[in-house]
Amino acid sequence: MALIAIAIGSIWIGIVFSYAIKDLENFNLDKLDSANMPLVLYGNGIGFYEISSNHYNNSILVKVLDSNGNYLNMRTITNKETVNYFVFQHTGRFTLELTNLSAKSVQLTVEFGDTKYQEFLIPSLMIFIGACLLMFTGYTKLRNYMTAQPE
User: Cα–Cα–Cα angle for 79, 108, 120, nearest 5°?
Assistant: First the structure.
């Protein structure tokens, strides 16, 4: 029963994540070149962006702007793989702006979207309850297990 609850909760989270609003694009940015990635997000929640680069030690300026031009997040990324999150409070068009500050051109793979964290509550509880049941049944089996002790 515990393993079934864990499996159903895990599959449910995978399905929710696969239906989340997200966009994936590839960019080739020369020195001081910029690119924009717009996306419409609904309601309020936590958005994310994942950026993968072909080189280490890049310098990429990343900005997340809302439809009014307000900065929700601004970071300089130097890693090869980066994931960051931002909070949005209203429905609107959000833009991920990328600027290459490196001395060389860089190839980027960028994923930008909504985490839909609100829909994870029930499947997360299923996984937690399944894990607790699994630990409890393991504890009861080990507690009742007798070993012969030499005298």
Answer: 75
φ and ψ at 107, to 5 degrees? -105, 130
| 3 state SS of 150 | coil
Write out pLDDT tens, residues 44-73. 889 999 999 988 888 999 999 998 888 999
Q: How far apart are CA 129 and CA 63, in angstroms?
A: 39
**Class of CATH domain 22-115:** mainly beta
Spans of all domains in the chain? 1-19+117-138, 22-115
Which tokens go with 134? Answer: 């699994």
Evaluated on CA atoms 54, 55, 57, 58, the torsion sign reads negative
In DSSP terms, which residues pair with 79 in a beta bridge?
A: none
Helix axes 121-143, 2-18, angle to 10 degrees: 160
Structure token digits, residue 140: 């009861």
Q: Which residue matches tokens 């002790």?
A: 149
Element holding 37 (H helix, E strand): strand 34-41
Structure token pair of residue 115: 């985490």
pLDDT digits (tens, 9 = 90+) for 72-110: 999 998 888 999 999 999 899 999 999 999 888 899 999
